[in-house]
Amino acid sequence: MTGRSEMVGIADAVAQLQWLTQERELSIAEGDWEAAQATEQRRWLVANEIFRNPQVLVEHPALRGVLEEVVATDQRAIETVRQRQKAAGAQLGSLRRGRQAADAYQQQASR
Fold it and tell me: Where are the domains of the chain?
């Protein structure tokens, strides 16, 4: 079993994970993918620290709800990113078709 000081350390790490999750969500909402990626890397470091001890959820069951909330937020973020990737792909396809049409017009005009 872990001591009180380790519990405080874990609680602080979980609070930091929550904060970083919120920061990442803001970056995603703003379309700031570099900031989102940098924040995600920091989140992974914190999560690895939390789960360094595989018994953490057994010994600190109150943390489970917080971590479930973080996982739910992650799932929403994944869906948001997928939707934005799909929209960006559609825009790219439209740009390519426009470029092809412009190239074809230019070839016809030069004949």
Answer: 4-109
The tens digit of pLDDT for each residue in 54-93 reads 787 787 777 888 888 888 988 988 898 899 889 888 888 8
Distance of alpha carbon 57 from alpha carbon 38, whole angstroms: 27
Q: Rounded to whole angstroms, how far apart are CA atoms 65 and 102?
A: 55
Q: Give this prediction's pTM.
A: 0.68
Separation of alpha carbons 32 and 38, rounded Å: 10
Read out DSSP for 16-82?
A: HHHHHHHHHHHHHHTT-HHHHHHHHHHHHHHHHHHTTSTTHHHH-TTHHHHHHHHHHHHHHHHHHHH
Amino acid at 1: M
The share of the chain scoring above pLDDT 70, in percent, equals 93
